[in-house]
Design a protein that fits this description.
Dna Topoisomerase Vi A Subunit, Chain: A, domain 2; 324 residues; five-stranded antiparallel beta sheet; elongated; 14 strands; 3 domains; 18% strand; alpha+beta
């Protein structure tokens, strides 16, 4: 961009208040005698600047991202700036508009949410010696999980819709901030969530030495692979901030169904990698893959398929969509 101080002709003087004083070029154009007492002043803030004449009172200014106004155009002409340079400056400014809006949006979406600590959900940790807990242990085993893979909780005495549910505490920085209940009978709703806006499950599962973080939709996918869970098929702005705070390479692993495939574009736009492994047709998500292939093979397939190429993701997404 143009530096306004290089445009102003003649002698210039810097004041303690941040103004640059010089002989105002506007006075005789506005019916006054030419200024010879350096009563014109420019104050710059980065690319933006304001001009004020303390003799004839003429004012104008410039703000990056906006076209040059008629008053500012006149001022620059009075400073002997060629019209082609003024037009070039105005065009460059307008071209910066989208960039500035993108930066402002990024700052907004990167605002890290604060989560309120919540009381521990009502229930008890799963205990193998408790016979009442065996049905819950069996269910977890069918999902390829062990009861001690996560501090799962249960409430064997619950009745009605609260019965036969596995309670999964939500933690953030090792504090309980919510929970979900997964019901084993598969009636709708399968989950009842107590989740705060912007929460991402699994941040406390991550290790400092890990270079990669896997992001899934579902809770059991995340627990199976020591990853994160969005708990839905979108990534909202607050969740982006939580994920980016980890400072790791991010690989988003969508569910291989119609709703899951919709997250791919959002992930790529955020600069994340996407992984759509070539699993068999009966595999819907990472937890299904763990049950069929085991954790190590599932992890290797995810890492091998991870890419930030929109073309590669689109090819794989179309392939999966045809079989859904």
């Amino acid at each position: 961009m143009f530096d306004i101080l290089t445009v102003i002709p003649g002698k210039k003087k810097q004041t303690q208040s941040g103004w640059t004083s010089f002989n105002a070029p506007c006075c005789h154009h506005n019916g006054h005698n030419p200024d010879k007492r350096m009563r014109g002043g420019v104050k710059a803030d980065g690319d933006d600047w304001n001009y004020h004449c303390f003799n004839c009172g003429f004012k104008c200014g410039f703000k990056l991202g906006r076209a040059i106004s008629k008053r500012t155009r006149n001022f620059l002409s009075w400073c002997n700036m060629p019209d082609q340079d003024i037009n070039k400056w105005s065009l460059h400014s307008i071209q910066h508009k989208d960039l500035l809006e993108s930066i402002l949006h990024k700052k907004k979406q990167n605002k890290l949410p604060k989560f309120k600590e919540q009381p521990m959900p009502e229930g008890e940790l799963i205990y193998t010696a408790n016979k009442d807990h065996q049905i819950y242990i069996d269910y977890l085993n069918k999902r390829g999980l062990q009861h001690n893979d996560y501090p799962f909780m249960v409430n064997p005495n619950a009745e009605g819709r609260q019965a036969q549910g596995i309670i999964i505490p939500y933690t953030y920085e090792n504090k309980v901030v919510g929970s979900t209940i997964r019901f084993m009978d598969d009636r709708n709703p399968k989950f009842i969530n107590d989740q705060q806006q912007g929460y991402v499950f699994g941040t406390d599962l991550q290790k400092d030495q890990w270079e990669v973080v896997l992001v899934f939709e579902g809770i059991f996918d995340a627990i199976s692979m020591n990853g994160l869970a969005l708990t839905h098929d979108t990534i909202n702005d607050n969740q982006v901030a939580v994920i980016n705070k980890l400072g790791k390479r991010v690989i988003v692993v969508p569910d291989q169904d119609k709703t899951g495939l919709g997250i791919c574009e959002r992930a790529l736009d955020l600069g994340f990698d996407v992984s759509l492994p070539n699993w068999s047709e009966d595999i819907k998500d990472a937890n299904d893959a763990v049950i069929k292939y085991g954790r190590l093979n599932t992890l290797l397939s995810i890492l091998d398929s991870a890419t930030n190429s929109k073309i590669k993701v689109e090819v794989m997404r179309n392939k999966i969509a045809k079989r859904i």
